[in-house]
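Protein modeling request. Please complete all fields; requests missing the sequence field cannot be processed.
Requester role: graduate student
Desired output: 3D structure, token encoding
Chains: 1
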Amino acid sequence: MNTLLVNTLSYQHNPAFYGRKELFQEIDGHLHARQEDSLIRSVATWGTGGIGKSQIALEYAQQQWLAGTNVVLWIASETEAGIAKSFNEAASRLDLPGYLETNTSYQNRFAMLQWLQKSSRVAWLLILDNVEDQKVLSEDWPRTGNGSILVTCRSEILAASPAAVAIEIPAFTTNESGELIMNIMSKENASKDGHLAAHELSEKLGGLALAIDIVAKQIKIRRRFRTIRDCLPYYD
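Delivered output (236 residues):
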């Protein structure tokens, strides 16, 4: 019998992903905690937009896939259309009994949730990314099964339930932001002033992972900026 292996991650692995080791350990500790019952393990991460929630979830999902989790499902949860598309793709990739392209999105979503709850021999990870509505968590939440759920959202209230654990994603510290800027720009061996300028820039960007990524890449490709310090006046 062939081992079932399905991965519906919507984004490619980011080879430049930086840091967050302690967060991964905390998430993993909760999602792999031993339990006596058949209740699934769940964690919700929350924080402001651009803090890096989705990238953290993607990196964690990639790690679990490489570690041997049989089924890793990514559900784009910001809109109803995204949710329906994600569940349809998952049902198709798993080749679920009763799956048809002509089914309604509700039929395929129901079949998908039933499979998750009954798949006692297959380890799975379900990521509900960028949840904006409590309805998603109430309607698309498996109650039992041999798996784990990782939620990302902006709202602390949404993160509080039904996930067992809510974890706030912090901004990068100034030192972390500065190192990330240097890594993106491939300037790890820059001068002392270069590192100081990276730290000054990171303070202006507030430790937001998305802002750091965009700005560092812009500086890297713009020829008029010979150094990081040259760009600082543009971010006052």
